[in-house]
Amino acid sequence: MRKLEDLQLLIANSVDKLRYPDYPAELYEPISYILSLGGKRMRPALLLMACDLFGGDVEEALSPALAIEVFHNFTLMHDDIMDKAPIRRGKTTVHEKWNANVAILSGDVMLIEGYKLMMQVRENILRQVLDIFNDTAVGVCEGQQLDMTFESTNNIAIKEYINMIRLKTAVVLGGALKIGALIGKADIKDAELLCEFGEQIGIAFQLQDDILDVYGNPEKFGKQIGGDILSNKKTYLLIKALELAQGDYADELNKWLSISDFGSEKKVAAVTEIYNQVNVRAYAENEMQLYADKAFKALEKINLPEANKQYLRDFADGLLVREY
Amino acid sequence: MRKLEDLQLLIANSVDKLRYPDYPAELYEPISYILSLGGKRMRPALLLMACDLFGGDVEEALSPALAIEVFHNFTLMHDDIMDKAPIRRGKTTVHEKWNANVAILSGDVMLIEGYKLMMQVRENILRQVLDIFNDTAVGVCEGQQLDMTFESTNNIAIKEYINMIRLKTAVVLGGALKIGALIGKADIKDAELLCEFGEQIGIAFQLQDDILDVYGNPEKFGKQIGGDILSNKKTYLLIKALELAQGDYADELNKWLSISDFGSEKKVAAVTEIYNQVNVRAYAENEMQLYADKAFKALEKINLPEANKQYLRDFADGLLVREY
After folding, report:
1. Which domains does chain B have, with CATH numbers?
2. Cβ–Cβ of A78/B149 closer than 8 Å?
3. Cβ within 8 Å, pair A142-B24
4. Closest residue of B to A110, CA-based?
5. Are B133 and B118 in contact (CB under 8 A)?
6. Residues A102-148: pLDDT tens digits?
7. Shortest Cα–Cα distance, A291 to chain B (Å)
8. How much is the ipTM here?
9. Nearest Cβ partner for B109 among A24, A102, A138
10. Are A75 and B94 in contact (CB under 8 A)?
């Protein structure tokens, strides 16, 4: 099996080679720009990995893998408009560098370019692959819509939250793995199990991200600790804490959610203290483990040699045991 | 052959039957909303017409025809954001009724739903149909970008303008006809000729629209006469007049383009007078005829019975001889 880092590097190099027309410049320059900002290229690498695991030819999976990366960057370009984000990977976002109209239209073309790349598969799996891509793409849009809706919604149930992160983050991982598996000539049952593995790992990963925002090691997490707390982001921790907190803790938590004029450090410390008191971290870790277990359960059922399964287990462990 | 009006009615009824999920409501309600606003359903009807002309089963072409209509409405939803248009077909636009974020994301899903519908063709033409759809979709985005760029560009050449309207308006007509022809089992050469016919007729039609804005009969044109003049829209007439006008006429025209505080009637009358003086209407009608001729030339080469060709000629005549 090829190392994940090697596959990521192969993607990075292939992304660098993607070329778009010069005209109209305002339509195509933003595409090259956002693709040049880098990133871990994890989603397309997973597609290649799945193909490789089933003994397929990684080269055959390259265009569909690039499709996943182009699609992912389309969602980033449009999400950044919606979230009014000024910065993406340390650089100015497209709608800030150009304008929102350019970001809308370039994003639209990226989605189409994603389809063009995804179609570069052999004839007998074309329809199947595109069906998966369609479902994935719709899922991501649904997830983004729910994420936006939740910003102004109270009383979100944990179940709804999990469904949102599943759609927004996890279905692409599952979809990429499923498409890669089919290109690698896996049978449909194994491709679906691998998809299930990816989706459940994706949910566990997102829950871990919620935990790390509060309890992570700032040097290793790479983001500001407490960022979610400061923006009142409805993470698993906040939703669960609102459910668990009673009496004074509930009042205190609601007070911090409602005031906008506060010292940052003070708010992070105070909310974290409430989280500690209601023991929300344990709930979150428990939930995360639940989804990791589901992933491993699906993995066991896949018809693959033990060494290949171990590769997937190691991958999942690497993803989920980021240092606290 | 089935009457065009019957095909339009079939589309209208089928659009009414399209159903989208209830959840998330903000993602799917705008789709049903914009599709319910009506319209002539000309593009999808052309797809059915092409299929019918080659003896194909119109029912088989219904989903791809709906794909064209859903795609067209996706472009309207996003264009309306970019153009800050408050009204579409007499009703509030999606970004006004909801907000821009909702219109971006619902539009994205519509594009994907377009692909899902377009994939409902028989196996042996799936790739070919999707290739045409991809090219069409990219073309429309390029056309919209050029249209926006031209708003703030001086010295647009007629050639560039024609290319813009070809991309923005005409390629969808050509693409719809080509896909319909393939579903109707036309051979690829005939499908391409019909595509050429549609594209050239589309350009002629758009040029006619430019002429009607100034010289149309207000009761029959259905839009405000001189609307393009009031908004300084770079139509064929304006671009050509800027090219033709010399001396005082040039100064006068540029004056009217630069002032924003004017009486509407006065501006329309003054600019129309300059158009008359430089005889721009004749140039425009000549150019329009040029593209109509190209369309009819392509039509003659199609391998179809004379009656079917006559049907297409009548269709083109109906489109191009709107009353002045």
Report:
1. 1-186 (1.10.600.10), 197-324 (1.10.600.10)
2. no
3. yes
4. B138
5. yes
6. 999 999 999 999 999 999 999 999 999 999 999 999 999 999 999 99
7. 24
8. 0.96
9. A138
10. no
